[in-house]
Amino acid sequence: MLASRLHMFGGNLFLLIGTLILSVVAIFLLLAVWTAIKMWIWKRGQKRAQEQYENNRCAEDGTQLPATSRGICTDCGRVQEKVFHLPDGKRLCPTHYREQRANQQTC
Ligand SMILES: [Zn+2]
To answer: Does the pTM of the predicted model rise above 0.90?
Structure first.
């Protein structure tokens, strides 16, 4: 009677310890996953901020570049990832924008 009770207690103790260890491991796993998710969100935000900064940054000669977006270039008529919105309403891809600027500087 006593021996079987002790045996049951021992079994329960191992079960308890096992549960405790498992929950500690689970907590650490959750913390690791949470940290990874937060890092991913942070890196994504950093990437977006970097893209925004590069869109707004100045040209090589120090002048501010016009606003950009995805669109169709007026000169080549192709869809581009990045077109510059010129003040006169034209939209130029980086290649044609650079060509136009080069022409303006030689005139
Ligand atoms: Zn173009």
So the answer is: no
Amino acid letter, 42:
W
Q: Ligand 1 centre from 86 Cα, in Å?
A: 13
Nearest to 68 by CA among 49, 51, 44, 48: 51
Task: Kindly give the distance from the C-alpha atom of residue 103 to the centroid of ligand 1, in angstroms, as a whole number.
Answer: 15
46 alpha carbon – ligand 1 mean position (Å): 30
pLDDT per position as a tens digit, 35-49: 999 999 999 999 999
Helix/strand/coil percent split, the chain, to 5: 65, 15, 20
Ligand 1 center to residue 47 CA distance, Å? Answer: 26
